[in-house]
Amino acid sequence: MGSKSYIESLAEFIRAIDELTQSYNELKKEVERLSKELYNQKNLLNSIIESISEGVIAVDNNMNALLTNKFAEEFISQGILDIIDPKKQEEELNFKGKYVKITKYPLLLKNENIGRVIVIRDITKEKKLEEESKRRERLSAMGEIAVTLAHEIRNPLGSIELFAGLLKRNLEGENKRLAEAIISVSRSINKTVTDILLFTKSIDIQKEKVSIAEIVDDVIESLRHLISKKSAVVVVRGSRELSLQGSRELLKVCITNIITNALEAIDEKGRVEIEWEGDENYVTIIFRDDGIGIPENLKEEIFKPFFTTKRAGTGIGLAVVSRIVEAHGGTIEFTSKPGETEFRLKFSVS
User: Fold this and answer.
1) pTM of full prediction above 0.70
2) For residue 198, what are the contacts with CB-CB under 8 A and spacing of at least 6?
3) Which in 54, 72, 268, 332 has the greatest CB count within 10 A?
């Protein structure tokens, strides 16, 4: 009897072990299933975060990063967390040459605020479009004013130049020189009016076959007074057969402005070179001078309207050059250092 009870107890013990083993195996499978599910959810979360085209950073209350996506890593490495204002829910920053909008959301765990989720959106393109829109609105308003002013200025200006020309014929010595000065100033004012009109209105290109040599000849002749005043050496090189499709008058304005700038930059007896070269596809017009050069900190500013370092300058000339070249589908590049400045204008032949 005692022996049977012992055997029954042993059997029950074995059954209990089997049940525990089975429960353990089932629990192990459940843990493996849950681990796999957690792993998949984690991968899904990472995939979702990485697919977002904005920077996502989860930080604790001390602004230490807990989780980031690749888009945000560059910003973190450049120190954006050091300049974000934790008290602001939204802010815009000019960060390393990019405009970014930063939005912050509470990071909650069981209703406890353990940090923030920071979303960084690159709004550089939006800002540039906004600035361009505002610029166009300003130009449109300026254009309406400029047309009226141009009419009011050019009428008396033409009369002044005409009368000064008539007086010049009958004058000699100092008086003749003064009459020539009046004509020169009148032309300068007229050029400024033309530049402002060109800058403020849309440019419509009526293309024709244009000889580069003929345009350069015309421009140099029109600037003869300034060349003589500076006793400048002007060197011209290029094939007289080379031409391109463009607006003769607009290209003349463009070349006039660059050569005028070069003449104003050089000392007396300075040197200005105009050279052009090309093939069946492109023509490049090169302007060199040995003037004072453009300071490094101003190189990004020179094509902006009304920016000038000259007392008497309007700051519109190179802005007009840039617009004319762009309207022709061309490009403009320059290099500059004291004693050597070079502008390169490249146009398609057709």
Assistant:
1) no
2) 250, 253, 320, 323, 324
3) 72
